[in-house]
Amino acid sequence: MNGDDPVLRAAYRLCRRRTKDQDPAEYALIQLVPAALRPALHALWAAANALDDLGDDRTAPAAERAARVEAWITALHRELPTGSSPDPVRHALVDTANRWRLDLSELRDAMAQVQDDTRGRRFADWAEWRAWGRDNLLPWFGQVRTVFDRAGVPVALRLDTREAYEEFLDGVRLTDILTDLAADLAQGDLLLPAEALDLHPGSAADLAQRRWSPAVAALVKHLTGLARQWVTQESLTRGMHPGPATVLDTMAALLHAQLDAVDAAGPALLRSPPRPALGTRVRILAPARARAALAWS
């Protein structure tokens, strides 16, 4: 980033701090990539999170939240040609887009989905749920892949691994939903498909009342098992540069640890988000840092 521009440096520092404070696991993963790439990844994460926060702010009615999201998106596309923004997160994102030659129009549908989500979501089956999750996550992860490409580390996916990649992101989404179950339920959201809920009669009603029951326990066990299956994609990193391969392998290990924490939470899952023990994270991240240092050397 430009060391002569204090405003831009402050914008990137804010993105870094928000990533570290609000998603320590994501921050730890970004620390596994070369320092030159980290500001761009912090900016992308902070932008996605800022937009989600606008859509999720239940102190405002749905129509107002939708208008705020639309205004944020409109401002971003107006500011892109100028290379600057009065909003620090957008300022960092605009600079990242110009610096790494990112096409942020690829995020248009994912951003519009956040606006649509302010009206609430219900899913009849896994097909609807997957389409929703992939439409949101794939474009953002695509920007990350482009940053690696621009840095000379292409993360091309073989045709035979594309479905594994998308299924991996399904696992990321499901793990996030299970982790955030308490917060979502408090807002009246249940971002799980009826197809899964119907396998455990009574679970939907119990969750709506934030009541732990045998049906809810069985549902959670079923879903954590499914998420583990989805994030275990050994073919995904085969033939990949060892740097991004280390990041993906570490991400999978952290997701498994998070799912273990979800399983261990029991009734507390409906009151607060579970987190893996510090020792667990250290056991995953310490060797990952060593592997990453070697991979990028």
From TrEMBL:
SUPFAM superfamilies xrefs: Terpenoid synthases
Keyword ATP-binding: no
KW Transferase (keyword) present: yes
InterPro entries: Isoprenoid_synthase_dom_sf, Squ/phyt_synthse
Top-level lineage group: Bacteria
MF GO annotations: transferase activity, transferring alkyl or aryl (other than methyl) groups
Keywords: Transferase
Name recorded for this polypeptide: Di-trans,poly-cis-decaprenylcistransferase
